[in-house]
Amino acid sequence: MKIDILTIFPNMFTGFLSESIIKRAIQEKYVDIQIHDIRKYSKDKHKKVDDYGFGGGKGMVLMPEPIFDAVNDLKTKDSKVILMTPQGVPYKQAKAYELAKEKHLIIICGHYEGFDERIRTLADMEISIGDYVLTGGELASMVITDSVVRLINGVIEEESHVKDSFNNNLLDYPVYTKPTEFRGMKVPEVLLSGHHANIEKFRTEESIKRTKERRPDLLEKR
Ligand code: 6GU
Questions:
Q1: Residue 51 predicted with pLDDT over 90
Q2: CA–CA distances in Å: residue 66 to residues 42, 107, 188
Q3: Pocket probe mutation, ligand 1, options 85, 113, 127, max atoms within 8 Å of Cβ
Q4: Which of the residues 60, 83, 174, 200 could staple to 50 if both were Cys, CB 3.0 to 4.6 A apart?
């Protein structure tokens, strides 16, 4: 898979791309992630990419031309263009699975007070990562990228995500490691028993109990 991210803050991505699973997925060629500075596509001599909004009002608005030129440069017949905006469709794990099947994603990070409305015509979809406002789409684009890359076949063991929270609209069951007793808190006996059927039953029950307590809205979707 190839992921191209368009941003006016390319440095925000340095840490994200150079640690842990994302770093390894890039090294092992499961994914090619390229960060593109929108300023590079500006035809203005000061590399301007935003301007005052018509009609007045607060803040600067991202101009359409540099972003149109960038998308035009990168787009192929296999591309899906995603616009990051708090006005987009709320992001869910099911969408991560869909995106993980794509060959090429182009992600546009909105910024400042907004982007010129005509930029919307470039997008196949608009995504929001939740009901709160970020200063820009950069963190949101990293959220999308992280959640998609870990689902690409081979990046992590399939076992580690078939049981992820949300896969059946259930939250994860609790897990424990050594020691078997820590500050008076004991690992549940059944997990030490080696009895696989009982362990499975315990985990399912704990998942349901946890979901009931914390996310009853998910259970209604089951
Ligand atoms: Cl995609 N962008 C911004 N700026 N804020 C957000 C968001 C995106 N999703 C939730 N809040």
A1: yes
A2: 5, 14, 58
A3: 85
A4: 60
